[in-house]
Write a structure and sequence with these properties.
Structural class: alpha+beta
Strand order of the largest sheet: 2-3-1-4-6-5
Number of helices: 10
Strand content: 5-15%
């Protein structure tokens, strides 16, 4: 991005206008070690991407994670940190979890999941938006459907149209909200998945949304307007 952005002000605008309980999360992909900002600490454990988002969202943690920190094979693959595993590639992994009637049905789904080129990512950087020491690629928001309604309206505020979201009920935070958003340059909404709800504290009444950081200024402005519009439910 070519212009300076007040990340703290943007986060405060989202939290105030939308009534967010927790921070929006800034995320950046880096392709080599020297691109990590000086002073950022490496995560000291192995957990899932969705749990890393929770650390930034709920606990205000700022850190980076390399492949060895990512516990979930599907998430690490979607984020470009490693090659796809054979069990994911063939469909056996999700088939054994009972998510599909057949391995081919699972394979068709896996082949349509958005993902960065394997090995293209050296590390993923995480921070609450208001404290980010880096310029993010994606901003993630996890919140109630009411909030997602306002984010959808904000997405359409300037140009109108329709919301078209892509999700499959699996890999919601990693593929749907992060990889898909980064690759497409468009906001994406997701219902969450069993893994993220089980391991990362996404509540039953919350959804997931990601948008490209290039849209941050426009999204802040639009959210302020649509939440105060005469036709907006208070």
């Amino acid at each position: 991005m070519m212009h300076e952005i007040d990340f703290a002000g943007a986060s405060e605008a989202f939290r105030t206008s939308l009534g967010l309980k927790h921070s929006p999360v800034a995320l950046r992909f880096v392709h080599k070690k020297e691109d990590i900002p000086a002073g950022m600490e490496k995560l000291d454990k192995t957990i899932r991407h969705c749990m890393m988002v929770t650390l930034a969202r709920k606990e205000g943690k700022i850190f980076y994670a390399t492949d060895e920190n990512h516990e979930c094979f599907g998430g690490a693959w979607a984020l470009g940190l490693r090659q796809i595993s054979e069990s994911l590639k063939t469909g056996e992994f999700y088939f054994k979890l009972g998510k599909f009637e057949s391995a081919p049905a699972c394979k068709r789904t896996i082949e349509s999941i958005p993902h960065l080129e394997s090995g293209s990512t050296y590390a993923t950087l995480y921070a609450p938006l208001e404290k980010t020491p880096f310029v993010p690629h994606v901003v993630l928001i996890i919140a109630a459907p009411r909030v997602m309604l306002k984010l959808a309206q904000a997405t359409l505020f300037r140009l109108g149209g329709r919301i078209v979201s892509e999700f499959s009920g699996i890999q919601s935070v990693c593929a749907d909200a992060t990889a898909q958003t980064y690759l497409s340059g468009r906001p994406n909404f997701s219902l969450g998945c069993d893994g993220s709800r089980k391991f990362s504290g996404i509540e039953d009444d919350e959804m997931v949304m990601g948008f490209p950081a290039e849209l941050l200024t426009d999204m802040v402005e639009a959210v302020r307007i649509v939440t105060q519009a005469p036709g907006s439910k208070k």
